[in-house]
Recover the amino acids of this structure.
């Protein structure tokens, strides 16, 4: 019961934050110098056309009225038109979002599973060679930005070894399976088209790993330090003195407690990668919402910019809530925070 | 001397830190028979907890090192034991109550789970079914006078008060029916009223189960009431031991005498005196007797050799050159 | 207590030696410190140590364009014939400038707001400040910076402003946690009781307790700010040609992959080098400032 209250408060908070974000982004987009209407129609359009267009964008009205129109539209799923693609922004988002989703899902899976695995191995063999190897790799992983990984992978696997494709989601020779989820990997499995599945996976590998290696290294480090720190605590000593087998202490008692900081950081790391996705999608020509975002930002396409930021913000918020739920499940101290008797 | 329950001989333990090694234990001796209630007294930082943890072999062995001495439990040196034998001793021989009950309990697991695991891996647990283990756990909680034991099994440590947590630690230590219980300052972190309760409880249970106990404390009052024999410790050395009555009526070591004088008298006579000076720096402890810089009776030999534990009769031993045999 | 100047000096020296001991325990921290010193040296003396200092600006020499690494040009040349190595040295200047400017703006602002919010926890000041930070941290840092940069004219200065705008909330939150937990401690209350005003309590009592995490974060942040700066330039929203910037160099060279790989790879490694150096240094600083537990 208390948990539902906790959840409700989180959701309310998130709605508030999204609203605040929309105001912030809206202000940023409208503050910019220059005339969006003129830019959209080009320098040769006649003044009256520009004036008319400006009216239709409500640019002549005060800011709060503009915001009102925008919110009203947004709640109906209408984010206006994109100057860049000349389509509804909503259509654009629907088209490009699944690609980014697919990429981020794989990235998230890699960074959490491999990250935790490496961290545990590192703590288990603390100060011996597996630990040292993992620590060196972790350092390199943490300091290398995703786009550097992307470039190196591209060079190594894409050109020198030539074993992985360098752009896009599917090779031109493969037909795309019917769109059900928008995730090509899933769609091809559903359709039973294994050739498409493997091809899609091959295209996913480099961008996903480029994005995942950094946070994976971070997760490994945090897991390791959390485990080694907890190993010093009294209750571990007590459990040892009770002759509980070492294996059980590590896998059960130590693990659950030590994973808490790791999981908490997952949200933050994931968020950071949502940012780096902008560059990685650009490098691999991945048709996702981040690449779309870069394109509209470079062209000062206001409606699209605002919409992209809102979508990213929403993704991040959802991930945060999921992670908060996970942490509350793991850590009774947070769940029962209100019930403290001492 | 016939092998008693526990025989710590000349134990030396050091911690590797910045600048060298902290020579925490410098030749600790402690003997006890079955069924005894022994007190281990000393000020904070004198090495009592380190001794306890060494006996249970739960010292953090990267910084800590046992570089001399032996600890015999029932005649066998546990320091030399391998992993499996050590586990056996831990399971059925010795158990411990930690000073801080909050730190001693794993915050993300229920009391029930921790208690049942403690029982399961003790000597009793080998053949017990899950049901029976749970019953034993509930009984252990009842033994320490905790109400509503079923609910407590499902609670997390954070939901309970400090006194309750310490009772649970007591329950965990005694539920395993071990032969030796080491209670490391079990009441220091509790309110005075709760202190009394817990000590009484401990006394009753220990008597019931005939568990030999080492009670570690820095309170002379507690020692006087609770123990049959006392070991006085200073700066990693054992300085005096005697039966409790004997020690209080006839303290011989200058440090013990100082401790006695430092306790204010209920009758209100005079002002309590402290012992001047401070505990030594463990990185470079004074040579010879570690107390000699603070001792009013010091002699030249005190700064050169460590005084051995000498018998002065009446089951009373002192480590001081004043009383050398 | 004897507070003669000679004794305090001796104590400070002892403290410094101990700090260095803790720092140098991890050889990687020392390497980090050395790397940062090297970078600082290179950027400070770039006009003197770079083999072709004039290449940093608008210089063209098409005969030497796109040369692979050689003795003459250890890192090769770029599309218009400029020496990559020299340009990297000068690019360090802009990277460091980015870090220094952003941190000098965000740290005072963020820390002050965080102190205020934490101290006055539960009041409207707290709510307003912290809700604002919530909004700023609800999107990935890079995204907001990109958005802000995209609506302004691309330049190094605007990039710095954009990054500063979304960086301050992190310091605010860091300090907020510490301040709100300390405000009920006795030393704060005793200061209040003796009549200390809020500024005194905030800056003289609470702030000193925050030095360690703030300093650690600052040294690690240098790396991240430089990284974000190079990401902005990579996309074209930061430094503009002919200004040498690591991010721009990576982007420009990317078009000529894989044949003229040196135009991208070396600047990319340079970015890694800077980030690695500051990360290691930051770790070392954290070790040095950490309170010892016996």
């Amino acid at each position: 019961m208390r948990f539902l209250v906790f959840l409700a408060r989180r959701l309310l908070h998130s709605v508030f934050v999204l609203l605040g974000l929309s105001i912030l982004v809206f202000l940023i987009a409208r503050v910019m110098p220059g005339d969006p209407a003129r830019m959209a129609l080009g320098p040769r359009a006649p003044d009256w056309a520009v004036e008319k267009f400006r009216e239709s964008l409500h640019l002549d009205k005060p800011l709060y009225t503009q915001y009102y129109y925008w919110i009203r539209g947004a709640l109906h799923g209408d984010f206006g038109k994109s100057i860049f693609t000349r389509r509804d922004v909503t259509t654009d988002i629907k088209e490009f979002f699944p690609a980014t989703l697919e990429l981020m899902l794989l990235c998230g899976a890699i960074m959490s599973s491999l990250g935790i695995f490496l961290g545990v191995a590192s703590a288990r063999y603390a100060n011996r060679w597996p630990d040292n190897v993992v620590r060196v790799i972790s350092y390199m992983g943490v300091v290398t930005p995703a786009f550097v990984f992307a470039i190196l992978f591209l060079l190594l696997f894409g050109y020198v070894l030539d074993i992985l494709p360098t752009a896009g989601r599917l090779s031109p020779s493969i037909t795309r399976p019917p769109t059900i989820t928008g995730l090509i990997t899933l769609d091809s499995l559903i359709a039973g088209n294994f050739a498409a599945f493997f091809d899609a996976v091959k295209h996913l590998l480099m961008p996903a790993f480029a994005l995942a290696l950094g946070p994976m290294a971070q997760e490994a480090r945090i897991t390791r330090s959390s485990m080694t720190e907890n190993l010093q605590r009294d209750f571990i000593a007590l459990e040892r003195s009770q002759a509980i087998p070492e294996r059980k202490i590590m896998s059960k008692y130590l693990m659950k407690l030590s994973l808490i900081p790791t999981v908490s950081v997952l949200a933050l790391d994931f968020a950071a990668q949502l940012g780096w996705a902008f560059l990685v999608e650009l490098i691999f020509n991945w048709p996702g919402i981040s690449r779309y975002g870069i394109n509209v930002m470079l062209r000062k396409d206001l409606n699209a910019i605002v919409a992209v930021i809102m979508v990213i913000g929403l993704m991040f918020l959802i991930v945060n809530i999921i992670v908060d739920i996970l942490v509350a499940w793991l850590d009774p101290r947070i769940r029962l925070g209100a019930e403290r008797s001492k | 001397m016939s092998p008693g329950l526990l025989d710590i001989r000349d134990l030396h333990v050091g911690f590797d830190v910045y600048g060298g090694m902290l020579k925490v234990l410098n030749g600790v001796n402690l003997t006890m028979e079955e069924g005894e209630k022994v007190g281990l007294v000393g000020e904070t930082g004198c090495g009592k907890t380190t001794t306890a943890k060494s006996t249970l072999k739960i010292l953090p062995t990267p910084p800590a090192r046992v570089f001399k001495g032996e600890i015999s439990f029932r005649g066998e040196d546990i320091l030399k034991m391998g992993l499996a034998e050590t586990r056996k001793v831990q399971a059925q021989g010795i158990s411990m109550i930690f000073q801080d009950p909050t730190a001693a309990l794993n915050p993300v697991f229920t009391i029930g789970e921790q208690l049942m695991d403690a029982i399961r891996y003790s000597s009793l647990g080998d053949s017990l079914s899950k049901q029976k283990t749970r019953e034993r756990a509930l009984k252990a909680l009842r033994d320490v006078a905790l109400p509503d034991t079923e609910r407590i099994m499902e609670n997390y440590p954070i939901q309970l008060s400090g006194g309750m947590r310490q009772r649970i630690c007591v329950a965990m230590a005694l539920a395993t029916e071990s032969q030796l219980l080491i209670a490391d300052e079990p009441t220091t972190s509790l309110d005075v009223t709760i202190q009394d309760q817990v000590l009484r409880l401990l006394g009753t249970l220990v008597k019931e189960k005939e568990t030999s106990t080492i009670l570690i404390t820095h309170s002379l009052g507690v020692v006087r009431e609770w123990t049959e024999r006392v070991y006085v410790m200073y700066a990693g050395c054992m300085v005096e031991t005697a039966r409790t009555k004997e020690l209080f009526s006839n303290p011989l070591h200058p440090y013990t005498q100082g401790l006695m004088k430092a306790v204010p008298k209920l009758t209100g006579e005079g002002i309590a005196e402290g012992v001047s000076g401070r505990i030594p720096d463990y990185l470079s402890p004074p040579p010879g007797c570690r107390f000699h810089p603070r001792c009013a009776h010091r002699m030249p030999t005190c700064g050169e050799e460590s005084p051995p534990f000498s018998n002065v009769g009446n089951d009373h031993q002192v480590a001081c050159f004043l009383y050398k045999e | 207590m004897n507070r003669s100047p000679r004794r305090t000096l001796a104590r400070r020296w002892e403290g410094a030696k101990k700090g260095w001991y803790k720092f140098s325990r991890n050889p990687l921290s020392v390497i980090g410190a050395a790397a940062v010193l090297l970078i600082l040296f290179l950027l400070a003396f770039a006009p003197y140590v770079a083999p072709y200092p004039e290449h940093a600006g608008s210089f063209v020499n098409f005969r030497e364009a796109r040369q692979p690494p050689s003795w003459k040009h250890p890192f090769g040349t770029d599309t218009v014939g400029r020496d990559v190595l020299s340009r990297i040295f000068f690019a360090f200047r802009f990277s460091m400038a980015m870090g220094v400017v952003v941190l000098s703006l965000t740290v005072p602002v963020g820390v002050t707001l965080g102190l205020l919010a934490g101290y006055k926890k539960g009041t409207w000041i707290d709510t307003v400040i912290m809700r604002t930070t919530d909004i700023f941290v609800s999107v990935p840092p890079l995204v907001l910076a990109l958005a802000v940069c995209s609506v302004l004219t691309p330049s190094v200065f605007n990039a710095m402003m954009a990054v500063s705008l979304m960086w301050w909330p992190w310091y605010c939150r860091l300090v907020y946690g510490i301040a709100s937990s300390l405000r009920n401690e006795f030393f704060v209350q005793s200061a209040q009781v003796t009549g200390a005003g809020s500024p005194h309590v905030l800056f003289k009592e609470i702030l000193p307790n925050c030095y360690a995490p703030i300093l650690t974060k600052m040294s690690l942040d240098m790396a991240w700010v430089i990284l974000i700066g190079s990401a902005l330039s990579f996309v074209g929203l930061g430094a503009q040609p002919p200004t040498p910037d690591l991010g721009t160099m990576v982007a420009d060279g990317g078009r000529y992959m894989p044949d003229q790989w040196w135009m991208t790879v070396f600047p990319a490694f340079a970015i890694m080098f800077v980030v690695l150096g500051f990360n290691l240094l930051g770790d070392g600083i954290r070790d040095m400032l950490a309170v010892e537990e016996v």
